[in-house]
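User: Could you check the structure of this?
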Amino acid sequence: MRISDTAYPIEKDWRKWVIFDGALDRVVVVFLQRLAAYSRDILKRPIHFIAGFRTYDMQLQLWNNYKYNGGPYANYPGNSWHEFSCACDVHGPSSKWGEIMRDYILPPGKQTMNKYGIYITSWAGTQVREWWHLMPMEIMSYTGTKSTFLTDDVVNGEDEMKLNDNGPDVLSWQNALVKVGKWALVDGVPTPTPNSNFGPTTQANTNSFKKSIGLPEDGIVNETTWAKMTDALRLLPDQELDKANNEVKRLQKLIDDYTTALQALH
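Assistant: Sure, the predicted structure tokens are below.
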């Protein structure tokens, strides 16, 4: 199956409107372009994500945390759309929660995101409350296996980064190092502003981060390194996220009270 690049509005210069805060941005390009169009037209500002692509091992870790430690809901590994480059989880204080919440409480077909080819799990359609989880609309009518869904689609991103690489993936990694406090002094010299170039400073700070989490100090940012960075970012306090979660709880209580009242009438 191929995700349409003509059925919904797109923004080809998607990096101006879609920002990955330390997440793997190996997501199907057309979906990123739809998210950018939605951000451009509706949010009027960039949307931030804490999760894009996940490896099987990353999903397994999340599922074990959910199953055995009471952590947030996670699909069994091999069954998450994140593993197939078709899902992004909203994150960060720069995202505009109100617009997303409005779509979340509406049933499918009434959501503004639908007009941009984006599906947000609705309270009306599932018992799993994941207001942050965005996916392409095409998955709603797809009946095949997830592993063959994107056979013909172009996926963004690289498998790993190292010294002398450059580009937006490097900038995402540098910004993540800043957020977790690993963009620091190198041999007593202040580091430069993140600049998309994987130079000696980025390599040194990468090794500092990898040392702190018990990974080999080889200067390479691979899937395992990204997974550990995502874990570190999830632990950071986020007042905006807390406010958003409280709003979800308030709205969910209203919905539950309304449902209970309707059932009582019958």
